[in-house]
Specification:
The protein is mostly helical and about 100 residues long. The protein is about 85% helix and about 0% strand. The protein is elongated, with a radius of gyration of 26 Å. The protein starts with a helix and ends with a helix. It comes from Didymodactylos carnosus.
Length: about 100
């Protein structure tokens, strides 16, 4: 059974690795000239779409947003971990007092 799980994991890792290689080699998230050409052709043929394309954030804006979101999550996690002992203690004292008052 253990070997079956290892083989499945190896297969999944190979698929993910291959997909990642294809994405990187084809510059899916980079400055793809073909994508820019298609957008420019669309803007020229449909001028009313220009405003919509102008609202699309740049890759640096998306990157900054992702970094800020990640950092916010990390900050909240460690803040929660730092407060966990006192919050747990206060919660247990409250429960203890309520149970004590019942008897």
């Amino acid at each position: 059974m253990k070997h079956l799980v290892s083989r499945r994991m190896a297969g999944k890792l190979a698929i993910v690795g291959g997909a990642t290689l294809l994405v990187v080699n084809n510059e899916v998230f980079g400055a793809n000239k073909y994508a820019r050409q298609v957008i420019n052709n669309l803007r020229n043929s449909l001028p009313e779409t220009a405003e919509a394309f102008d609202k699309i954030p740049s890759t640096s804006e998306i990157n900054n947003c992702a970094i800020d979101t990640w950092n916010s999550g990390v900050h909240k996690t460690f803040h929660w971990l730092a407060d966990a002992p006192s919050t747990t203690k206060n919660g247990l004292i409250t429960v203890y007092n309520k149970v004590k008052d019942l008897f």
